[in-house]
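user: At home tonight, take the chain set out below, taking as long as you need, and be ready to discuss the fold:
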Amino acid sequence: MSAAEAERFRVAAIAAQDRIADHHEAATFTQLLQLWRQDDTLRELTFHPNLAGIARQLAGVPLRLWHDQLLIKPPHNGAATEFHQDQPYWPHANSRHALSAWVALVDVPVERGCMTFIPGSHGLRGLRPQDLTDSADLFRIAPELAWQRRVTMPLRAGDCTFHNAYLAHTAAPNLTDDPRIAHVVIYVDADLTYLGAPGHVVTDPLHLTVGQRLPDSDFPPFV
C-alpha cells in the first residue's frame, strides 16, 4: 500500500496502543489482538481487499479470519523473537492451509526487527509450540533446520509479506530509537474445525465444542 496509507494506519495503531487496555506484554513485543472489533480504521486494514485477494490466491482454499494483531517492538527492546512456527499455537483441526499477512506500518530495516525465514520449513509438521525467547528451542526439536538457508526481509512502510503458518521465522531485536509497528492478519481454512487443545485467548471465551466449525460471527469468512 502507499506510504500515505501506511502512515494513516500507523497513527491509528499508536492510538490503539494507548487506548486499548487488553494487550499482552511479551518479553520481546507488545501484542494487541482483535483490532477489527475495536478500531474502525484498523478494521479497514484487516479486511483490505488487496490482502485478502492475495491470501486467497496463495492458499487455494476458502479462507476466514483467525485473528488480527498489532505487534509493536519498543525502541531498544534488546530481544529477538526467536525462530518458531505459528500453527502449533492454534487449536485447529482439518486445516488445509493457513497463512499470515505481515504489514509494515513503519520502515523495518534489519536493525528495527525485520523477519528472517527458513525456506521449505513449512513442510515440517507435528511440532510442539516453541519458546519465543529461546534461540535454540526450535532447533532442539528440528535439528535438520539448524543449517538451512535463511532469507531476511527488510521492509518499507506499506510493504507486506505473506508466510505459511508452518514456515519457521524469527524477528530481530529493535535496536533503533523508534518503535517497530506491524499489523498482522491471519487467514485460515474456512472449513477447519476446533481442536480444543492447545487453548487460545481468542477461542477460550467462546466455549466451542471440539469438532465445531469456527462461527462466522467471530471469525468472518472472506468472500
